[in-house]
Design a protein that fits this description.
Layout lengths: L1 H22 L4 E20 L8 E6 L2 E12 L3 E20 L2 E4 L1 E18 L5 E19 L5 E21 L4 E12 L2 E7 L3 E22 L1
Antiparallel strand pairs: 1-2, 1-3, 1-11, 2-4, 3-4, 4-5, 4-6, 6-7, 7-8, 8-9, 9-11, 10-11
Length: 224
């Protein structure tokens, strides 16, 4: 229920912010880029078919690299809308659970996402600084490759699924349209089903539900 609320709230917030944007007259276009790390993440899932529920999978991610670029525009000083391309490289932690049994593991999940974001800038009583919050909805392609340290393949496959995110950050205004910022983003990838592979099962449908990531990033934004 909570995860459904994340997607619903993200979609509602984006719609409201874009509605305000569409009503405005003057657009302030910008480009932005950011680098950072996923400081925490997890996944759950199972294999499809009649034995799927008997073979649940789960695990966590170690800290991984995150990057994003975006193009957007701001209106009424406070409202921004942007299109964002993001990339996550999430290494699997040392333990992966398959059929309730823990296995030593290695590998990663790589995610490429395309998001439509709505952001609101809050004026604060500190000259040159602002706080912003927002949400995004979109789609993400995820490639999973998890294996035992001995090389035994535990999970492998690629999927495309709906995605949603929430964001909170602080921004510092510099000169000539340049801004620097730091923010936190919660990324949620909805249940995904893909053609997977496991050395014990062979080719089979696999369901991941969901993949989550908590990101800390710093970046720059240039308005023109």
């Amino acid at each position: 229920m909570i995860k459904k609320l994340v997607i619903a709230n993200a979609a509602t917030l984006v719609a409201c912010l874009l509605a305000q944007t569409a009503a405005a007259q003057d657009n302030n276009f910008y480009v932005a880029g950011a680098l950072g790390a996923s400081i925490d993440g997890s996944f759950e899932g199972n294999w499809g078919g009649p034995l799927g529920d008997l073979n649940p999978t789960s695990g966590t991610f170690d800290s991984g690299a995150v990057a994003r670029i975006g193009v957007g525009y701001g209106v009424l000083t406070n409202v921004r809308a942007e299109v964002e391309l993001g990339y996550h490289a999430l290494p699997i932690s040392d333990e992966y659970t398959f059929s309730a049994l823990p296995f030593d593991s290695e590998g990663d999940a790589k995610t490429l996402s395309l998001m439509l974001n709505g952001l609101y800038d809050f004026d604060i009583s500190v000259p040159g600084y602002s706080i912003y919050a927002g949400a995004g909805i979109g789609v993400a392609k995820t490639e999973v490759n998890i294996r035992r340290q001995s090389g035994f393949q535990l999970s492998e496959g690629t999927s495309v699924a709906p995605a949603a995110q929430l964001r909170l950050g602080v921004e510092r205004e510099l000169e000539n349209g340049m801004n620097v910022f730091a923010d936190y983003t919660y990324l949620y990838l909805k249940e995904t089903e893909f053609d997977g592979y496991n050395d014990a099962i062979g080719d089979a449908d696999q369901i991941f539900s969901p993949i989550e990531s908590h990101d800390l990033m710093v970046g720059v934004r240039y308005g023109f």
